[in-house]
């Protein structure tokens, strides 16, 4: 059904669209993360791609993880940082972040504001992997 | 190659990303349109979806067309209108526009500013169709 779904930000300033549910980022306890929500903006059944919007509250972070599929992210609001392997990059509104397959990555919101980003994925994709203690050691040593 | 490509708006205010080419919307003369450009933000070879950014200058418009694939559009800047079949909807920043298969549609920027939007498509998709005189008659009569 054709539609124009309005962008209707909440009084808190959080990004929200009409007729779009705010979902859990992941099941609690399934992986380490802090204060992240998910909205599925587009997942047309005839299309192979999906567009999701993730919002990380001030001081929050996504899971440190990796997966086979390329990560394609566009920052839609706010400021924060992204870890890509052993590097950290400051990020802000409208930056494009591309992360290679099987590269460890994690998004952080700044302490004083939320970070919101679009993420493009294929409907068919592999599940994220979590780091082992051996994976973490070199990552921790580099920052 | 992992990367953070910066959003670097031009002095004119037009949206532009580093290392992303501004392309023609379509070949001149191939279809009616006015003042539209295209940037491909993400087209990872391992992914089935692509994310493109279209920018319509003040007073410009995209081609009136239809196609089999569902249209999934997020307005990234500005204000304008979208025709969907016989309806017109005002649109502005962050609205989500979904257009059913084989539904005539056209985007217009307002007279006083540009309209920029993201469009999600599958890599494999059908080509747009242009309206015949018979298709246009009912569309013109309704607005």
Commentary on this structure:
The structure is a homodimer of 143-residue chains. In chain A, strands 2, 3, 4, 5, 6, 7, 8 and 9 form an eight-stranded antiparallel beta sheet that branches. The first copy, chain A, has one helix and nine strands, in the order E-E-E-E-E-E-E-E-E-H. Chain A is globular. With 143 residues, chain A is mostly beta strands.
Task: Offer a few descriptive terms.
mainly beta, 45% strand, 8-stranded antiparallel β-sheet, 1 helix, 143 residues, homodimer
Describe how the helices and strands are arranged.
Two copies of one chain form a homodimer.
Chain A: E1 3-5, E2 23-24, E3 34-42, E4 49-61, E5 71-84, E6 87-92, E7 96-99, E8 105-109, E9 115-122, H1 133-141
Antiparallel strand pairs in A: 2-3, 3-4, 4-9, 5-6, 5-7, 5-8, 5-9
How would you spell out the order of helices and strands of chain A? EEEEEEEEEH
Question: Globular, elongated, flat, extended or rod-shaped: what is the shape of chain A?
Answer: globular
Q: Which structural class do the helices and strands of chain A define? A: mainly beta
| Number of discrete helical segments of chain A | 1
| First and last CA, distance of chain A | 49 Å
Averaging pLDDT over every residue of chain A, what do you get?
91
Low-confidence parts of chain A, pLDDT < 50 over ≥5 residues? none
> Nearest-angstrom radius of gyration of chain A?
15 Å
> What is the share of helical residues of chain A?
under 10%
* Largest sheet: number of strands, sense, barrel closure of chain A: 8 strands, antiparallel
Q: What is the number of E strands of chain A? A: 9
Largest interface: A-B, 49 and 49 residues
* Oligomeric state: homodimer
Strand percentage of chain A lies at 35-45%
